[in-house]
Amino acid sequence: MNSNIVLAVVVSAIAFGTPLVLAGLGELLAERSGVLNLGVEGMMLMGAVCAFYVSQELHWSSALVLFLAVVASMVAGAAMALIHAFLTITIRVNQIVSGLAITIFAGIIGLSSYLGEVWNIGGVAGLHQFNQVNLLGLKNLPILGPLIFNQDVFVYASWVLVVAVLYYLYRTRPGLYLRAVGENPAAADAMGINVTAYRYTHTLIGGALAGLGGAYFTLALAPIWTDGLTAGVGWIAIALVIFAFWRPDLLVLGAYLFGIFSALGPTLQTHHITALPSEFYSALPFLMTVIALAAASTSWANRRIGTPASLGIPYTREEA
Amino acid sequence: MIGPLRVERRLDTPKWLKVVVPLASLVLAAIIVGILLLATGHNPLSTYHQMYSAAITADGALSSTLVYATPLLFTGLCAAFAFRMRTWNIGGEGQLYMGAVGASATGLVLGDWPRPLVIIAMVIGGALAGMLWAEIPALLRAYLRTNEILTSLMLNYVAGFFMYYLIYDSDSYWRDLTTPGASVFPTGKTLGSHANWPGITIGSFTLPLGFVIGAALAVGLLLLIRSTRYGFEMRVMGDSPQAANYSGIRTKRKILSVMAISGGVAGVAGSSQIGDFGHVLDPRGLQQAQYGYTGIVVAALALYNPIAVVLVSLFIGGLTNAGFALEGPSFPTGLVGTMEGIILFTVLGGEILARYRISWQRRHVVAVGTGVAS
Q1: Do B1 and A196 touch (CB under 8 A)?
Q2: CA-to-CA distance for A191 and A212, rounded, in angstroms?
Q3: B171-202 pLDDT, tens digit each
Q4: Per the domain annotation, does B50 fall within a domain?
Q5: Residue B158 is nearest to which of A110, A227, A287, comparing CB atoms?
Q6: Do B230 and B53 meet the contact criterion of CB atoms below 8 Å apart?
C-alpha cells in the first residue's frame, strides 16, 4: 500500500470521525450527569433531516442558510432529548427502554423518515454545503496540509469543542459539579447542587450535539437525505464513550480510529483494491466496536475505567 | 430540589387504574399522532379509518395482519424474555437474520425429506443459528462484563452484511446461480415444496404455522418464568444481581442460557420468515422489515409478559400491515415508527403514573419536611 492511499484514508477518517466526535461528546456529557441516552441514533437522524430541510427551503446567502440549518439540527436533537429527559429524570422511566423508544420514534422507520417524505426532500442533491477552508493558506503543506489545514468548519468546530469540554469538565466549577452529580447525586444534592437541573441541561446539550453530528452528514459529508443515512454511527458514538473511559481526549482518538475503519472500504474501492468483499469493510467498524468494548472490559482496563457511579439510576431524595 | 413536579410511590395501585391508564395512554397517543397528522396536512380521522380497514375489516386484511404479527411475536418474546432478567438483548434483529440463514440452509439441504421432518429441522436450524449468534454478546457479558446492549446491537449490522455477502457478493450455497436472470439480479435459491409451512385456514383467514408455534412458545416461556426454579432465579437476578450471586445462583451460566433461549426464539422468527412466507433468503426484505427492533416495542408495550406479547404482536402487526398497505403520499412510511414511538412514550409514562403519584410540589410542604429554614 503506498503512502498516497494511507494519507487518503486518514484524511477521510477525519471526515467520518467528526460526527462521532460531536455525538460522542454529547453522550459523554449526558452520561457524566448520570443519564444514559440510547436515543443518539434517532437524534442524529432528526438533526440530519431538519438541517437538510432548512438548507433546501431557505434561499438566502449560503453562510446564513447553513448557520440556520445547523441551529435547526441542534434544536431538533435537543427536542428529542427533552422527551428522554422528561421520561427518565422526572417520571423515572427506565433509561434503556426510553432511549430505545426514542431511536424507534425518530429513527429509520420513524419521524425522521416521515418528515423527509412530508417535506419531499429525499434523494435530491443539497443546495448548500460546508466546503473545505484553506486555513491560514497552508493547505498545500505536505501531509499536514490536507490533514489539518484543509478541513471544513464542522471539523474545526469539533476541535474547539473538544478543548472546551475538557476545560469545562476539569477546570470549571460547573464541570466539577457535573462530575459530582454523576458520581454521587445525593452528596451533590446535599451540597446544594440542583441535580435535576444538571441532568436536564446536559441531556439537552447531549441531544443538541447528536443533532449537530447528524447535520454533518447532510451538510458536509454527502449533502443528500435518505432514510436512516447515519447507519449506526449513533450507536458507535455511545460505545465510544465507554471505551474512551468517559474522557473527551481519548474520545477524539477513538473517533478518528473508527473514522479509519469506516474510511478504509470506500477509499480502497476508489483505488480499485478489492481483495476482500465490500461487506467486510462495511461490517468492520461494527466488528471493531465489539472487540474494543470487550477489550475495555478486561480487568486491566476495568481498574482505569471511569464509569459515573450513578449512570442509569434515577435520583430522588426520598429513595437515595 | 427536584423541581416543581413531585413523584411519590403509591402504597398500592387501585385496580381501576391498571385498566384505565393503558387505555388513556392509547387515547393520548392517538391524539398526539392526530395533531402531527393535522400539522402535516393530513386528516387524522380518515387516516385512522383507513388504517382500521386495512388492518382488520378489508378483504384478506386479517390474514396479512397475521403475516406481520408472526415475526413480531417471536422477536417480542425474544426481547421480553431477556429483558425480564434485565439482560438487554437488542440483537433480535441480527439473530432473526442468522435464523433465516440457518433455516434456509437446513431447508435446502433436506429438500425432499418428508415435510414434517423438514419443518422440524428448519425450526431447529433457525433456533440454533440464532442461539449461536446471541452467545457472542452473552459470553462477553458473562465473562468480561461487556455491555450487552451495544455488542448485541453491533452484531445486528454484522449479520446484515453477512446476509448481503451470501446473496449479492459470493457464490454461496444460498445463492441461485442456475437461472440466467439470477446472474443479473442476484437472488437466493428457492426452497423446495416440502419446506413450505402449511397455514391453518379458519373461515376467511389463514393462521400461519409460525404464529401457532410462537403462541405455544409464549405459554412455555410464561410457565418457565412464573412456576419454575429457573424463572425464580431469573427474577432474582433481574432485581439484584448481587443477591443472586450471594445466594449461590450461577449467574454466568444463567446469562448464557437466557441469551440462548432469547436468541433461539428470534432465530425461529427467521425460520418462519423462510418457511411460512418467503421461501428464499432475501436480505433486503428482511432488513427493511426491521422486525427485530419492532419486537422491542412489542415487548415493552407488553410489559415483558409473554402472553401479553401475543396480543401486542397482533396490535403492532396490524399497525405495520396498515403501514405497508397504505404506503403512499397520504401515508408516509415513517408514520408507523412514529406512532409506535408515541404509543411507547405514553404507555411507559402511564405505567409509571399508575405506580406513582405525581403532584405539584407546594412550598409549605418543603418547609415542614426540611425543618427550620435558615
Answers
A1: yes
A2: 34
A3: 888 998 887 777 778 889 899 888 899 999 88
A4: no
A5: A287
A6: no
